[in-house]
Design goal:
Oligomer: single chain
Number of helices: 6
Shape: globular
Number of strands: 4
Helix content: 40-55%
Distance between the termini: 24 Å
Length: 220
Amino acid sequence: MEVPSHSIEACLPSDRRREGFRQRIFDLVIGAGATIAFLPLMAFLALVVRLDSSGPVFFRQERLGRNGVPFQIWKFRSMRHNSDDQQHRTAASAWFAAQPAEGGYKTLADPRITRVGRFLRKTSLDELPQLFNVLRGEMSLVGPRPGIRYELDHYQPWYFERQRVKPGMTGLWQVSGRERVSAKDMMALDVRYVRERTLWLDFRILLLTLPALLGRTRHG
């Protein structure tokens, strides 16, 4: 999948401010409603995670947001407490080099993943706490997934355009095949989103996210 060769259309600063304001209102309204709706489920999942294995309920990790600004992302813990990240670093390196490691970039066969963690990852329910990142303004509901600092060592120059917007809980990558999409195609999808994003596109991606997750659950 090639990135469009045409240059990004010039956009006046006032246009950017208005678009950013509309995006923030969209995130706050939909995000607040979703947080309230999912609070009972999140409370239940927190209890299940705590009972399944020792360690904290939540997993926090530094990610890179808009313009590369770091922030702490929240997830339900899906791995054994104090697991190191070397396996993920190795898989990421292979994925960006178009040489996927056995089982793929985010395999559920990873021995560090707990029993409950496999279910949470398969359904993406481990990412529900990121609604609080959205409410805090660190993420949007829709956008490129937030990068990890060591992944940037594998970026081609044009990949960095994905950091022009806030990272999202879902995006074109998630509704276009997720792990089945190569690293280069994922970046192309993210850059395409950055160049073409509108509130209508965000709304369409949100509507497509649930069917995409259900398809992963059936075939995963």
